[in-house]
Amino acid sequence: MKPFNVEVNFQTGDLTPGKKIDRYLSGVKNMFFDQAAADAILQREDPLIYQVIYADVPEAKGHLGNCTTIIYPGKVGREFYFTKGHFHEERGTAEIYFCLQGKGKLLLESTDGEWAILDMYPGTASYIPPYWSHRTINVGQEKLIFYCVFPADAGHDYGTIEEIGYPKLVVEENGQIMVVDNPKRRK
Fold this sequence. Notes:
This protein is mostly beta strands.
């Protein structure tokens, strides 16, 4: 493999060249707390919740995967749009998120049950330690766009989060952004 550049558009989140993955509500609806609200939206439309654009890097030891993520503004019920969230399959790997645009929250939980939430806004670089799952939430009125760097062989374990959920939800209550307990959390 030879050295190469990718171009990151800070305004749109486009990564060129890159491979884009689109996540629509129909593909993540079961992860939202309010299933009735998700179903009602899906009767009218299937909105795009977020996109990930990956640079073409081998998923092999020694390489650094990198991508941009674009989360659109919106809510399902009171809950803001978010990424599915995941652990790395290789639990002992870290990741960095560098916020380019928008306003968000980064919800994290360690394998031993400790949780944290970090604010994301342009210029913040969020460090995700090994053994921590992570989900990003758009709490603003514009797209939340961030750039990620991670060990290319880390892999993604979405199944654990789909099965148990996160301990907290990020919702809007009376015009305020709130972090509340997730009553559907499974242990």
